[in-house]
Amino acid sequence: MGMSTPGSAPTIDEQLVAAPLVPWQLVVWDDPVNLMSYVTRVFRTYFGYPEEHATRLMLAVHHDGHAIVATGPRETMEVHAQAMHDYGLLATIREVPQ
């Protein structure tokens, strides 16, 4: 493994070590279309969340306008966001605030 010298660009290995994976969040947003029971069912079906947890998340979406539904690597959150879109829910991803 090569080490960079002062003034040279770091190697890929050094970049991976120097930049740990930053977690990302999946945010589901409230919308005027989907029923609360449907949102709860999506959270239970897709994520496998227990009814109580799925209901808490749905209520946060409903009352607060959004909820953080999952956290993990960016690529995984992108897959989850696309799945939420496929279910007809509004979802975005964002980097976890440092």
Automatic annotation (TrEMBL):
Keywords: Hydrolase, Protease
Top-level lineage group: Bacteria
InterPro entries, A to Z: ClpS (IPR022935), ClpS_core (IPR003769), Ribosomal_bL12_C/ClpS-like (IPR014719)
Domain Adaptor protein ClpS core residues, every copy: 23-88
MF terms (GO), sorted A to Z: peptidase activity
Gene Ontology biological process terms in this record: protein catabolic process; proteolysis
Pfam families found in the cross-reference section: ClpS
Assembly notes: Binds to the N-terminal domain of the chaperone ClpA.
Known function: Involved in the modulation of the specificity of the ClpAP-mediated ATP-dependent protein degradation.
Record-linked HAMAP family: ClpS
NCBIfam families hit by this protein: PRK00033.1-1
Family as reported in the entry's similarity comment: Belongs to the ClpS family.
Protein's name according to its UniProt entry: ATP-dependent Clp protease adapter protein ClpS
